[in-house]
Structures are given as structure tokens and as C-alpha cells.
Design a protein that fits this description.
There is one protein chain. By secondary structure, the chain is of the alpha/beta class. The protein folds into two domains: 256 residues, 5'-nuclease (Rossmann fold, 3-Layer(aba) Sandwich), CATH 3.40.50; 47 residues. It contains ten helices and eleven strands. Strand 2 and strand 3 form a beta hairpin. The radius of gyration is 23 Å and the shape is globular.
């Protein structure tokens, strides 16, 4: 990608950075109860899972119960980790940063998700210093809080609005729906997504859903099967509308399979909801609509 003299606009999805940096400031300790050969119980707090096994073997004990708890460390370690990642981004792509973080927690997907609860699988406890790192990013790096949607939606919108070269800095695979230069700062991997690859990934997610966000997709269609179906369809050089019609047909066929939770529902509406949930919002307040249909927008203006 050709870059102007000032370098590309650097679109930073800082939500992944928040969690990684905040995790630096805490450690797990395992509170364990052991039992000896005579039935007596003893207690020990151990830092690592391997220590539990070693403790039991060394003292000839049997583990009865273990519970993990977090011990807070120094928050400055978290802030330093966030700083190092941001410095690395600057050194690589320049200082024309647009940084986005989660705002008030509202998300339009919560409103449109009727089949299952959006992100209901996110039950893991949040890092202790998550808010401190978030405040640091807003204060020091001018990160903009995004309300009503996710930070990656804002980055997708900004990328589509941009008339200048840009690079998307994020570990989130969902942004692979956006063509252009990408850098995964967690894995230190740079790659380019073509328009064809971006569209293909979106259609694939329409079928398979996204297990990370509790989006179920079509019944019994995983990413591998979805990819195979798309490759077969593409041999006939279909239009986008043809692809969408094929997807709806797969949803309809899936309702004849045992255990399908969508039985009795209109397949086009089930497919539409899944498509809208996986779609990265490329225009403010817009909902994804099937090819050839008029654009639809969120009612009520839930937005930042």
C-alpha cells in the first residue's frame, strides 16, 4: 500500500490491549485443601498448577479441592505494558494515531440479538486493573470511548470513511472483514486483506457465526464447512445477491436437521440476524441489509 509523506492513519483497537496489559498486574494463587492417608486435611496456597502436583507428591497427599484467586500486583506494570505496545505501534507506523476503547458498555447487538444472548459466553472475570488501564489510554493516548457499539465497529467505519492510507492495529479477527493493511500487535504479524478476502470472511461468518461472541450461525455449519460451500458457489461466478440467497437456503435446509433450534422460524430472518451480528459496522448507525435492498438504520440512535 502506498503511503503519503505523513504516513498512514493508524487505527488502533485498544480493547485487546486493555485486557493484555491489565493482566500483567495480577497473578493467580491456588488455595488448596489436601488429605493425607489418615483423612486429615491440610491447607496450602500455591502459585502454579505444577506446584499443586509437586506438593501432593512430595508429602504423599491427595488434592481434595482447589480454588483460584487473584492477587493484585503493581498497577504501574500494567500501564508500562500498555505504553510499550503503543510505542511499538508508533515506531512501526508513525504517530497519526486514532485510538478507540470500549465506552459505556452499550452495544446495538444486544438489541437486535433475539435468537441467543449476545456474548452470553463471556463469563470470565475481568482483570483487576482493567479500568485503570482504560483511563490511562484515554488520558495519555487520547483514546476515544465508543458507546452504542464496539471499538472495532468504529475502526471499520473510520477505515471506510478514510480517503487516505490506513493501517488497522488489532488482534481481533473480526476486523478481517475490512480490506487493507493490518497489524496484529499481540502476535506481531502484519498482513494485507483484499476486498475479496474481506467479503469472503463476512459471508463465511454469516454461515458459521462466531463462537467467541456466542453468535451461533447456521445449525451444524462450522467455519470449515462454510468455507467449502462458498468455494463451491464461487465457481459459478455468483453475484452478492446469489451468495446471500444461497446462505438463506442453507439455513432453510438446516431446519430439517435434528436438534436445530430454528425450526419453525423464517430462515431469511434467522440468517439476517446472524449476518447483522457478525457484520462490522461500516457506516454510523447502519444495519447490514441483503444486497439490492434499501439500507436500514438503528432506531432510537443508540450511538456514541
Amino acid at each position: 500500500m502506498a503511503q503519503n509523506k505523513k504516513g498512514p492513519t493508524v487505527l488502533v483497537d485498544a480493547d485487546g490491549l486493555l485486557y493484555a496489559a491489565a493482566a500483567v498486574g495480577e497473578e493467580n494463587v491456588w488455595d488448596c485443601i489436601f488429605e493425607d492417608s489418615e483423612g486429615n486435611h491440610t491447607f496450602a496456597s500455591l502459585r502454579y498448577v505444577v506446584d499443586i502436583k509437586k506438593h501432593a507428591e512430595d508429602l504423599n497427599l491427595t488434592l481434595v479441592e482447589k480454588t483460584a484467586r487473584k492477587i493484585p500486583g503493581d498497577v504501574t506494570h500494567c500501564l508500562h505494558a500498555a505504553k510499550m505496545t503503543m510505542k511499538q505501534i508508533q515506531e512501526r507506523y508513525g504517530k497519526r494515531l486514532e485510538v478507540y476503547v470500549k465506552g459505556d458498555g452499550t452495544n446495538y447487538r444486544d438489541q437486535i440479538s433475539t435468537l441467543v444472548e449476545y456474548k452470553a459466553n463471556r463469563t470470565q472475570e475481568k482483570p483487576l486493573y482493567l479500568e485503570e488501564v482504560r483511563q490511562y489510554m484515554m488520558t495519555v493516548w487520547n483514546a476515544i470511548p465508543v458507546n452504542g457499539k464496539e471499538a472495532d465497529d468504529m475502526i471499520a467505519t473510520r477505515a471506510y470513511e478514510s480517503s487516505q492510507p490506513y493501517v488497522i492495529c488489532s488482534p481481533d479477527k473480526d476486523l478481517d472483514q475490512i480490506p487493507g493493511l493490518h497489524w496484529n500487535y499481540r502476535k506481531n504479524v502484519e498482513y494485507t486483506i483484499s476486498q475479496f478476502e474481506a467479503d469472503f470472511f463476512f459471508w463465511q461468518q454469516c454461515l458459521s457465526g462466531d463462537s467467541a461472541d456466542h453468535i451461533k450461525g447456521c445449525w451444524k455449519i462450522g467455519p470449515g464447512i462454510a468455507e467449502k460451500l462458498l468455494q463451491e458457489w464461487l465457481q459459478d461466478d455468483p453475484s452478492e445477491r446469489d451468495i446471500w440467497d444461497n446462505i438463506v437456503e442453507v439455513y432453510a435446509d438446516s431446519m430439517g436437521l435434528p436438534g436445530c433450534p430454528y425450526v419453525g422460524m423464517p430462515p431469511e430472518l434467522v440468517a439476517l440476524e446472524n449476518a447483522r451480528l457478525v457484520w462490522m459496522q461500516t457506516e454510523n448507525l447502519r444495519l447490514w441489509t441483503p444486497p439490492g435492498e434499501d439500507p436500514e438504520y438503528l432506531e432510537g440512535g443508540l450511538d456514541d
